[in-house]
Each structure stands twice: as structure tokens, then as C-alpha cells.
């Protein structure tokens, strides 16, 4: 029955890192609405750390995109067995692609799917026009998916539970922190999967020099294994003492580093949402993408640094090269542009 109270809920959001973190606002509010319900989630194994310590989830199921049809069927059988051999009252598909269709098919009494707003994205990329008068962030779009269930928004942000939060039994970032006394710690994430979402390495190096000279801050470089060459280049160019925490294969370890910092400086990438979840202020550098896509830092102090270049956005996810070959969206962002954003946040 439409809108009836569900006792078992299955959420599907397989990837990517940022998109999975952005689901945590909805999951918490579902738990507040249905404290006794079974709330399970399926996500790709590489992102399971995001929900490893989250108490709002009953069960976490890890999906492998290399599975064949038989392996997917076995996976679904396991999920149903652990739901007392019953179909789920409600499946919330926040991925909405062929893989999520395969997973949800036949195991839910009711399925609702996120609106992907493809026409708006196409209008932004090809016509450079936003057909909506307001910018709606992705966590709000996820919440709209369950609007008929009248799930209230508690007004809080994202979550990324760390072992220390689980031990304390409370989400520590939502407890007001006292001002950090002593040395300023700033994390810098210069990587991104797509080239057009990466600010220039030489400018990152210049920014690091400025921050060291101006604030005598402790600089921590973070990133995954794919960012090794980028981070190494920046560290070599900066020629200052920094802490290298790049090439990490653990999302939790990266979150723990960010959690100890006063600020994160990053490109438009998933690490930005880790900082938002840990309530660490963000300076985010946007190149080929724009705020209208809805992936800005959610309910955390932040400043977006961008340039009004006529060819933006050229994509909603990023490209491996600039289609115009001038890369003005990033080249025109100066060290001063970013350092001024850093000053504004630190001065507060």
C-alpha cells in the first residue's frame, strides 16, 4: 500500500564515494522515522567503510560489479533469507541504473527510485542553462524520493561514523567543538578521478608555500593510490615540509586525518563530502563542473572557488581532457583566489 509504514527497507546506492556519503542524511532520518524497522543497504565493496560503523543500518551488503547473473541471484537469495525469506516492504533505489535494476528485481513489494534530473543536467551541459530556479543538493533530492512517507528532515548534515564515534555511542561531529588552540592543521586533496576536476599542480604547490609562510600551518596531503603521481609532483614543487598521507587504500584512515584538521582544501571530489560529514570546513575548487549539479558540501561551512567561464559546465562528472584545449575553468583560478577563501574561513 502506497505510503504505508514499512517494517523492512532496502536502500541501493552502489557508487561512487561521494554519492554514497550523501545518502547518510536520508538513512539517519529514516531511522528516526522508523526506529524498529530493518534498514539494510547495498553498496559496492570498495565503499563499505562508509557504513561500517554507522548504527542506523541493520545490515550492510557488499556488491561486486564483476558478478555474473548466477552470482547476483545467489546474492539476492542471501539477502532474502536474512529478511526471514520475505520480500522487502520498501526498496529505495538511489542508483537507478541497470545494476540496481538487477538487484532490486523480484525482492521488494514496493520500489521507489530517485529522480536523476537528466534533462536539467543536459540543459546545463549543452545549453549552459539551469531550467530550475533553485539549486537542490543531492541529499535533498534523495529525501524527495521518500516524500510520501513524510520522513522529516532533522536539520543536520551528513555522517561518516568512525570507530571513536561508535565507541562513544554518539556522532561526535554534531557536538559543538571548542576552538582548536595551537597549530593550524590543513588537509589538501589535490586529486580527482577526472582531469578536468583537478586544479593545476603548480598552483597547489604555490598555495602550500603561501599557507606555510602566512600561518605556519601543518599541511597534510591526502589522496588515494591513483593520486600518487599528482601528490608527489606537488610535494616536490612546493619544497616545504608537509605530511604525506596520500596513496591511502582506506577511506576510514583518510577520514581520520581530515577529522584532525581545521580545514580541507579540495577539488570537486568525494573527499569533499568526507569533510562535510565530519563537519570540517571546506574550500572547494570547481573546474568543469558547477554548483547547479547539487554536489556542493552539505550543511558545513564552505567556500566554492570557481570562474565564470562560458564553456562551463562541459560535463557533470568530469573529462579526461579539456574539450576546448585551453582549460580556462582551472587555469584562470589563481593562488590568490584560493588563499583568499582560506583566509575567510580561518579569520572566522
Tell me briefly what this model is.
The protein is α/β, with parallel strands linked by helices.
Low-pLDDT regions = none
Q: Kindly estimate the percentage of residues that lie in beta strands according to DSSP.
A: 15-25%
Number of helices: 13
Shape: globular
Please identify the structural class as seen in this structure.
Answer: alpha/beta
CATH topology (level 3) name of the largest domain: Rossmann fold
Termini separation comes to: 50 Å
Give the number of domains.
Answer: 2
> What spatial order of strands do you see in the largest sheet?
8-7-6-9-10-11
Written overview of the protein:
The protein is an alpha/beta fold. The chain has two domains: 8-159, Glycogen Phosphorylase B (Rossmann fold, 3-Layer(aba) Sandwich), CATH 3.40.50; 176-347, 3-Layer(aba) Sandwich (Rossmann fold). Helices cover 34% and strands 16% of the residues. The chain is built from 13 helices and eleven strands. It has helices spanning 17-21, 24-33, 69-81, 98-104, 118-127, 138-144, 163-168, 201-215, 228-238, 251-259, 270-277, 328-331, 335-347, and strands at residues 8-12, 38-44, 59-63, 90-93, 111-113, 185-189, 218-224, 243-248, 263-267, 282-285, 302-305. The strands form two sheets. Strands 8-7-6-9-10-11 form a six-stranded parallel beta sheet, sandwiched between helices. Strands 3-2-1-4-5 form a five-stranded parallel beta sheet, with helices on both faces. Helix 8 (201-215) crosses helix 9 (228-238) and helix 8 (201-215) runs parallel beside helix 13. The radius of gyration is 21 Å and the shape is globular. The chain starts with 7 loop residues before the first strand and ends with a helix. 41% of the residues are buried.
Amino acid at each position: 500500500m502506497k505510503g504505508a509504514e514499512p517494517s523492512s527497507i532496502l536502500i541501493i546506492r552502489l557508487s561512487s564515494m561521494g554519492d554514497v556519503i550523501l545518502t547518510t542524511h536520508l538513512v539517519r532520518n529514516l531511522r528516526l522515522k522508523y526506529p524498529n524497522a530493518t534498514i539494510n543497504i547495498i553498496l559496492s565493496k570498495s565503499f563499505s567503510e562508509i557504513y561500517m560503523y554507522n548504527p542506523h543500518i541493520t545490515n550492510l551488503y557488499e556488491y561486486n560489479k564483476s558478478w555474473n547473473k548466477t552470482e547476483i541471484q545467489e546474492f539476492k537469495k542471501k539477502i532474502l533469507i536474512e529478511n526471514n525469506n520475505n520480500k522487502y516492504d520498501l526498496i529505495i533505489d538511489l542508483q537507478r541504473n541497470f545494476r540496481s535494476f538487477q538487484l532490486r528485481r523480484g525482492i521488494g513489494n514496493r520500489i521507489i527510485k530517485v529522480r536523476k534530473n537528466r534533462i536539467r543536467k543536459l540543459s546545463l551541459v549543452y545549453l549552459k542553462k539551469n531550467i530550475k530556479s533553485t539549486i537542490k543538493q543531492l541529499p535533498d533530492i534523495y529525501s524527495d524520493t521518500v516524500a510520501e512517507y513524510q520522513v522529516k528532515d532533522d536539520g543536520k548534515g551528513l555522517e561518516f561514523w568512525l570507530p571513536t564515534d561508535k565507541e562513544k555511542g554518539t556522532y561526535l561531529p554534531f557536538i559543538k567543538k571548542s576552538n582548536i588552540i595551537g597549530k593550524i592543521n590543513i588537509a589538501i586533496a589535490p586529486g580527482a578521478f577526472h582531469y578536468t576536476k583537478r586544479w593545476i599542480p603548480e598552483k597547489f604547490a604555490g598555495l602550500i608555500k603561501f599557507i606555510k609562510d602566512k600561518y605556519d600551518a601543518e599541511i597534510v596531503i591526502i589522496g588515494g593510490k591513483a593520486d600518487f603521481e599528482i601528490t608527489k609532483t606537488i610535494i616536490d614543487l612546493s619544497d616545504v615540509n608537509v605530511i604525506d598521507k596520500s596513496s591511502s587504500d582506506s577511506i576510514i584512515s583518510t577520514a581520520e586525518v581530515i577529522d584532525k584538521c581545521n580545514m580541507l582544501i579540495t577539488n570537486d571530489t568525494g573527499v569533499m563530502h568526507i569533510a562535510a560529514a565530519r563537519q570540517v570546513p571546506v574550500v572547494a575548487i570547481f573546474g568543469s563542473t558547477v554548483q547547479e549539479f547539487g554536489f556542493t558540501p552539505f550543511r558545513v561551512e564552505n567556500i566554492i572557488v570557481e570562474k565564470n567561464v562560458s564553456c562551463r559546465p562541459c560535463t557533470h562528472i568530469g573529462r579526461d581532457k579539456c574539450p576546448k584545449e585551453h582549460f580556462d575553468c582551472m587555469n584562470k583560478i589563481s593562488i590568490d583566489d584560493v588563499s583568499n577563501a582560506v583566509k575567510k574561513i580561518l579569520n572566522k
